[in-house]
Design goal:
154 residues; 10 strands; mainly beta
């Protein structure tokens, strides 16, 4: 639904720890006009320059909190991600990204927050893998974004 607006174009930066690039991050918005309880946010399909980054190397920052992995986020049952709030997807990648333009492919996975579908109970026990279609909600397609690496984040 809002696929083309998921990523802020000028938000791609390397992430540094102790002066070394340990990954990269970019700003995202939720694709659901209602927002969602954070515990329903199941991660992303992320591919950068042809390399896929599974949710095990992803963290998410929202609501002024430190970046958290999705195991921690699924316990955030009372925290809400509002429609107009920007979050950050962090990807662990030794050395970060090289300067220049990068192609980020993305699909958001947010589980349904209303109604009941036969697979809902199974998804609580075994959440779907982002990028495989199930759980993609309002982001039915994997979208591609051309982003220029920005300076900063040191």
């Amino acid at each position: 639904m809002f696929d083309n607006y998921l990523v802020r174009k000028d938000s791609l930066e390397n992430v540094y720890k102790d002066g070394k690039a340990v990954g990269f991050k970019f700003g995202v918005r939720i694709a659901d006009y209602r927002g969602c309880f954070l515990s329903l946010h199941n991660g992303y399909y992320v591919e950068c320059d042809g390399v896929e980054y599974p949710k095990e190397v992803q963290k998410f920052e929202i609501n002024g909190n430190e970046p958290r992995d999705f195991e921690e986020i699924k316990k955030c049952v009372w925290e809400h991600w509002d429609y107009d709030d920007e979050g950050y997807v962090y990807i662990q990648k030794e050395g970060g990204l090289a300067p220049g333009e990068h192609v980020i492919k993305l699909q958001q996975s947010i589980l349904a927050q209303y109604g009941y579908m036969p697979w809902d109970e199974e998804w609580l026990k075994n959440p779907p893998t982002p990028g495989k279609g199930a759980g993609s909600g309002k982001t039915a397609n994997i979208c591609a974004f051309n982003l220029e690496l920005q300076e900063g984040g040191k």
